[in-house]
Amino acid sequence: MSYRVFIVALAGVVATANAASIAYDKVQPIAQPKPVTISEKAGVKFKPQLFVDSGCFTFPAVNAAGETSSGLPAEQGNYFCVKRYNLLGSQVYGRATWYKGVWAIMYAWYYPKTITALVATATHDWQNAVVWINNPDLESPKIMGLSTSKKSETDHTKPHITRETFKSDVTYDKRTKDFDQFLDGTSFKLASTLILGPIFLRPMTEKKGEFQDLVMWSQLPDVARAALNSTEIGNVPFSDANFQKKLAEAWPF
Questions:
Q1: Element spanning 4, H or E
Q2: pTM for the full predicted model
């Protein structure tokens, strides 16, 4: 291992060790940076809008200092998890790459607790959507597909949540045509909802949602990336350990 690689690795370990969990409603969202790269510009261009119509509201998972949300206890339904407690604002996280010749942009939202049929079942949850386009470098990229998660990403059957308890069993609703009814320009209209089961995402036609500040994986501070890669904050779908696995599960073609 070279000296430079060793120093970078050591810095990541130290940053992770120094990171802490703080109250879920004290995590300051990271302001959306100005997009510079082709990937970042495409991320903003296709950023979905989210309408939370039931279950838990979305909150930031990590701040610029690498402090992560401690979440909410698995009790009292969606109490404390509704919008009026979200005074600092929410966040959407993004990560993009080529996958089997198609450009995949994952957008992910964090929930302080898992809700199943209005019953809180675990601390921490994530839901995500993958927008598939032909080429981000084109002047007008074409949408090729949309995959939306429809199953809780936390294995709430386990008594103690650790990174080892998470299973890659998330399923997706997948579409490869008839997008216009769900689009507002280049932005998909998504709803976060639950119907006798865990929170899931669905494209909707009836109303618009809200935009959250987007921060792409490459734009996150090093300490924030390290925290999301190593901190027990649910099954982060865009972490280094999970990203490729989730794209394989979301593949719609």
A1: helix 3-18
A2: 0.85
